[in-house]
Amino acid sequence: MVKRIIHVCCALLVLAGCSYSVYSNAYPHLKKIRVMAFENKTAEFALADKTLEILSAQFNSDGRLKLVTQQADCQLDGTITDYNESIYSYDSANNVQDYQIRVSFQVALIDLVKNQTIYENKTLLITEQYAVSALSSSKFKSKEEAQNEIIRNLFKAIVQNSLEAW
Predict the structure, then answer these.
(1) What is the number of other CB atoms lying within 10 angstroms of the CB of residue 54?
(2) Which of 47, 78, 91, 148 has its CA 20 to 30 A from that of 100?
(3) Mind listing the pLDDT tens digit for each residue in 42-96?
(4) Is residue 5 in a domain?
(5) 39: which residues sit within 8 A by CB, 6+ positions away?
(6) Is 112 part of a structural domain of the chain?
(7) How would you classify the pairing of strands 96-111 and 116-131?
(8) H-type alpha helices, the chain
(9) pTM for the model
């Protein structure tokens, strides 16, 4: 019986050491993040508020960093530098079928513990299309959906280039 307990304990110890994670251990001291309101240098007035709201929700659902307003380990700063909406495609009758939104960002993720920049991009451009015609094959059917996807892609770019950097 004692041998069996020892074997089970050994097996549990071996299994406990066999774990895999897609998360990087590059910044194990980072536990809390403060997302600052983005400065908006465009005429798309509500975009900064929407960016803060969606980025905050993405960090909350991601779970790697706890979203806080005080005593953060790292801070995300950003500026929306350009916003452009233009015709992307026409149908066979020369009617507008899709629009493309292009948003340029300046972003910086700063380690407040070690006082260093983890990730910075001063020319991050993210684009997305949306449909204005029923015949369109665009994934998004409204300007708002496309804007929301741009901000979600901004979150992915920040995380992939900082927390997931190998």
Answers:
(1) 18
(2) 78
(3) 999 999 999 999 999 999 999 999 999 999 999 999 999 999 999 999 988 899 9
(4) no
(5) 48, 78, 79, 80
(6) yes
(7) antiparallel
(8) 2-16, 47-62, 143-160
(9) 0.82
